[in-house]
Amino acid sequence: MYGKAFAPEYQGALTTLSVNSSLVDVLAEATERLREAERSGLPGEAARCGLAVAEAHRRLGRIGDADRAWKASYRAAREAGDTAAMAWALWSGGTLARQRGAFPLAWRLLGLAAELGERGGDVVVRGYSLAGLAETGRIQGDYEAVGRLHEQLLAEARRRGEARHTVWALEGIAQMHRNTGDHDRAYALFEEAAEIAERAEDRRGHAWALRGLADILSARDGDTEGALELLSRAEATCREMNLSSALAYNHKMQGNVYYRAGRYAEARALYERALEEFRAMSEPRGEALARLGLAKSRARLGRDRAETAAELDELARALERGGLRHAREMVARAQEEFGPVAEAVR
């Protein structure tokens, strides 16, 4: 039903690159091909090679370089009159904006990318852009608004036999079920995503699916060692492919697993590690989640309650400004557990 996973963002002279290519290797080859295209006066080819440069930088956490690269790709595509390439560049820019927590900009760029993709007759970039809009809404916690879009995109991906896109949609829907408490449904979807990704040789998608499965093994079943084993497998993939963001989220999840097991010192160390990684790549959502885990771990290890309450209050304000509804609800629960009111009740 599903063929081997491919990376549609690797275009032009880069179509031979694998979805599993190391990002360091992708960046090196894409940069070389981009320079060749620029020297040869081929703006269309420069736009498509520049897209791969932008995506490699983004996934490596090099925010400034990624921002410059997607904009250069867009300018080259516009010069070439290539509407589809313009759409791909906007998709990259919108994805970067979401990663940076600039959600209004992400909505604008991804919406424009979807429009241009449709106008340019590129159903793949249209689908990826709509998926980006769906993921933006999901990350913000607006499940009602984007749940139906996730299901629509999943149906389209299944119909076209696109393994990578199917895996993405399954994981997004699974995460929404997990966050609303339906662990069994979430586990089944993550399990299907892992199976499809493994058969299609989509190592990135497989690593994310393993992370989801580990989360539920820990939260639902209390299976600490089983969860850590899955996360260890996923971590190896993240390191081999230089997946900086996925690695940071993996470490954050390891912190969650240790925390649930009451192993607070180990949880603290993992949250500290993840926090450094998120800050290095300017990823505010991951940073907020790591800060939350770290604050809770420190509280469990005897930190002054007033200091914990002050940190949680500051984190809540930051999340309110950023529009991260689900993460804000998580902080609210921590405030109930560790705040001054909880102490007075005791």
From TrEMBL:
Signal peptide: none annotated. The keyword Ligase does not apply. Pfam families: TPR_12, TPR_2. Keywords: Repeat, TPR repeat. This is Uncharacterized protein.
